[in-house]
Amino acid sequence: MARGLTVRPRGAAAAAGALAARFPALQHVYFRRYIAGQGISLIGFWMQAVAQSWLVYRLSASAFALGVVASAAYLPVLCLAPAAGVVADRVDRHRLVVLTQTLAMLLALGLGTLVALGIATVPIVAVFALGLGVVGAFDLPTRQAFLVQMVGAQDLPSAIAMNASVFNAARVIGPALAGMLVASIGEAPCFFLNAASYLAVIGALLTMRFPRAAGRGAAAPRRGELRSGVRYVRAHPPLGALLLALGVVSGLALQFGVLLPVVAERRFGAGASGYGMLLTAVGVGAVCSALELASRRPDAATHRRHLLGGLVAFGLGLLGLAASPRLAAALACNVVAGFGLIRFTATTNTLLQLLVDDGYRGRVMGLHTVMFMGTSPAGSLLLGALAQRFGAVPALIVSAAAPLGAAAWLIPRLSLARLERGGP
Fold this sequence. Notes:
The protein is an all-alpha fold. It contains 17 helices and no strands. The protein is globular and about 50 Å long.
């Protein structure tokens, strides 16, 4: 590890020391710089996400167009992420993360310029979303692998948890700011502010110094290795059940955000500010759930309860959103949905990591990535098409049915005995 990566709190920094004791990753100065910059950048990311969705809806008045643009952003991740993982093992990850963050900044700046000039169209937005998806396909696995360079293997779990907390906190702040800006002065400033926010994380990255990494020369995965991962999951039914449930819920329920611009405008007449509030409410529930989970050391029975309870809360929150007569009620339901969403996804990730043998961890988590993100394009298109044909409420009911159905399906397949032994 590079010299100066770890510092100890002194004297007047007792409060910081207590925080570092709870979050060991904060003992590492490079990680502190990174997470501070990443927090600013993620606020900008969520501001652009809100502005982009509202822009597409304003230009098209089409729920299906929202699904198409969302799919354009996710498809490259599905197609390129396996190759990107190989690249991340062969090149200097630090430099690659700087490159991907710089490219994402330039894409935000370019789209913002087109919006400000009044020449942005839905196809143009879709092309930029596709480009950002290509960058993200290389950025996501590389950034995850890069965390260990900043904190070491011992503090890696703490770094991952801190990353998730910052992501969800930004999900609260970014949409609220974007909603106010879009409602008052339009979408373009959100794109420009997102571009500027990348400077925080790029600046933090450029202050870091690591020994130059030689090419790792990792071999590309062989087909036999990929098939052995599938065979391993089939031999361990709890793993297969978790992955299948994740795929269904990710595809049909986690994409309910594409419906929120329609809900905000047509159901509540709340415009862009209402859309930002709806997204912010989801983030509030997610942050509360993440903090509550982080404060516990659950056993297998508690993990099972969290998983099933999260699915039920997620589904009921979406049903409540569909039935809400007023915006205030919808916001409360979105808080419940966000709470259940994070409880389900975080517990699924945890259980997969606990149940898998270390020799198969990479292959199983690769399948997790496919189920978690690879089903998103189809889900976005389906929900957009349903909302376009039948309205947002029926589409939300379909979304709600996914976690509720998954909970019922998982109850006999995730018995406590099976979770404790991890096998058939």
